[in-house]
Amino acid sequence: MRKHLLVTYLILVVLTSQMYGQTFMEKGLVYKILGDSVSVKLTGYQSINQFEREQPFHIPATVLHEGKSYPIKCIGNEALAGLSVVESIIVEEGIESIGNYAFESCINLKSVYIPASVRVIGEGIFGSCYNLKEIVVDSLNEDFQSPEGSNAIIADDELVAACPNVRIPSSVTIIDDYAFFHCNTMEQIVIPEGVEKIGFGAFQGCSSLKRITLSESLKRIGPDAFHGCSSLDSVFIPKNVSEILGANIFAGCYRLTSIVVDKDNTVFDSRNDCNGIVRKEDATLIASCATTTICEDIKALANDCFEGVILHTISIPKSMEKLSGGAFWGCNEIDSLFVDPDNAFYMSPKGANAILTRDGKTLVVGCRSTEIPADVETIDDYAFVGRYTKPMLKLPEGLKKVGTSAFSGCNMMTELIIPSSVEDISSSAFSDCYNLNVVQILSPIEKINYGTFSNCKSLSVLSLPEGLKQIDNLAFKNCVSLKNVHLPSTIELVKDDAFNGCTSLKYVHLPSTVGVVERNAFSGCPSLSK
Questions:
Q1: Rounded Cα distance, 254 and 391, in Å
Q2: CA distance 235 to 248
Q3: Cα dihedral value 153, 156, 158, 160, nearest 10
Q4: Is the CB of residue 314 less than 8 Å from the CB of residue 338?
Q5: Which of 202, 334, 393, 508 falls 20 to 30 Å from 111 in CA-CA distance?
């Protein structure tokens, strides 16, 4: 008897494991069987034409498939994104979680009902739901509420998700991550007193938002809080804000012309009407807009402090002590760079149109009209990221190092010559240069680092030097035009995924002296001869 029971149990285990992860479709909705093999997740839909605009769309709590009833435990990430014909959604009792961006871009959605059974709600679930006006949570839900008239989902004191028609309850102390993600038709909002924290990307992509009034109680602003608020024209930072996290919180706020910090704020200021946010402790500019001035008394630029800002001219005052190309990530329109002649740390030599260290040995920031001086020994991290616009880059003889992501995203570049003097090419140095076609490395460098040429989709001609010993992970990932690779006799190690996704690669010369070629070094290369 025990033997039969054991056999039956083993059969059930096998059948259960075979069912896990299987998908099926019923009434236009796609489901995936979960690990317990008795419940499913709603993962998507087949066609929007199957759903009627005028009728409430019920997301069922159970689904019948091949004679078996499955409870639906969750709505997956982006499961109903883009379901544009639906005006009303009712999530039925029994569903326990709603994934990230589950209803994103349901552009005609006007109302949503969340049942008592829901325990988890992901990020940005109502992103780009332009017409959403009503959000109702069942009064019996123990984790979430929608106080009458709020048109928001509240968890204890946190606002989790909302719509343009929101009324923030006085009980709220936290605007959660992505709470108003792509709330595109909201033009103004007042953050009520009591709110102390605005989370990661809370107002990201609110492209119609012109005015936001921040509460005096506000203490913390998370990364990307206002990223892409392209209609925002002015911001006032209250006196109690003591933490501003991440990169430029105003990236992509193209109309923003006024940033003012309360004069009584003890942590930040906007000194000399600079239209930026400066951290007092170390005089570092941390956030900016198109009218920001790097004024005297600013000593440092934080990485990404100008991210997403359209700039043409940069002037560095004599007070500046610390900066890097990372401060100007995404600022691809810069034409001119100037440094005050009295600056003790940096200079801008005549004719170079670049920022160099005072000794002239390191190029710190370049722009699209930079001429690299012959005496430069190091091109610093992020120096030209996205900004080098000439088709040919022939680095000067005498150069010793190319820094991390130094030329990443320079899509105008088609040919690259690395001279014999170069000793180090850092990770991702030339990544994402989509039009880079020819690379000649004359230097006997021993290692091509992580991601150095990843996503160089046009790279088809590659010359690797004798002396090269190692090609690191993802060094040539997604170089989809690369057909032939000749590895030098000195090669000792080709690491996993070094050539991952090189879909046109047909031939690799492996010298007889090669050391270790890791198992997945050429994964995702279907054309490669075995």
A1: 29
A2: 14
A3: -30
A4: yes
A5: 202
Task: Please name the helix (run of DSSP H) or strand (run of DSSP E) that holds residue 152, with its range, or none.
Answer: strand 152-155
Residue with tokens 């001086």: 373
Residue-wise pLDDT tens digits, 128-146 = 999 999 999 999 999 999 9
Domain with residue 31: its CATH number is 3.80.10.10
For residue 440, being part of any structural domain is answered with no
Q: What count of other Cβ atoms lies within 10 Å of the Cβ of residue 56?
A: 12
List, as one string, the DSSP characters of 458-491.
T--EEEPPTT--EE-TTTTTT-TT--EEE--TT-
Whether the CB-CB separation of 144 and 160 falls below 8 Å is answered with yes
Q: What is the mean pLDDT of the chain?
A: 93
Q: In the chain, what percentage of residues exceed pLDDT 90?
A: 87
Structural domain includes residue 137: yes
Paired with 12 in beta bridges are none
Domain membership of residue 11 (yes or no) is no
What's the CA gap between 256 and 233, in Å, rounded? 4
Answer for the pair 456, 433: CB distance below 8 angstroms, yes or no.
yes
Model pLDDT for residues 181-226, shown as the tens digit of each residue: 999 999 999 999 999 999 999 999 999 999 999 999 999 999 999 9
C-alpha angle with apex 186: 184 to 190, nearest 5 degrees?
140
Three-state SS at 17:
helix
C-alpha span between 370 and 384 (Å, rounded): 9
Angle formed at CA 325 by CA 320 and CA 327, multiple of 5 degrees: 70
Question: For the whole model, what pTM was predicted?
Answer: 0.88
CA distance 11 to 56: 42
What's residue 458's pLDDT?
97
For every residue of 506-526, which 3-state class applies, written as one string?
A: CEEECCCCCCEECCCCCCCCC
Q: How many residues does the chain have?
A: 530
Under the banding of pLDDT at 50, 70 and 90, the label for residue 52 is: low
Query: Structurally, how many domains does the chain consist of?
Result: 1
Closest CA to 128 of 84, 72, 192: 84
Q: Which two tokens stand for residue 515?
A: 């050391």
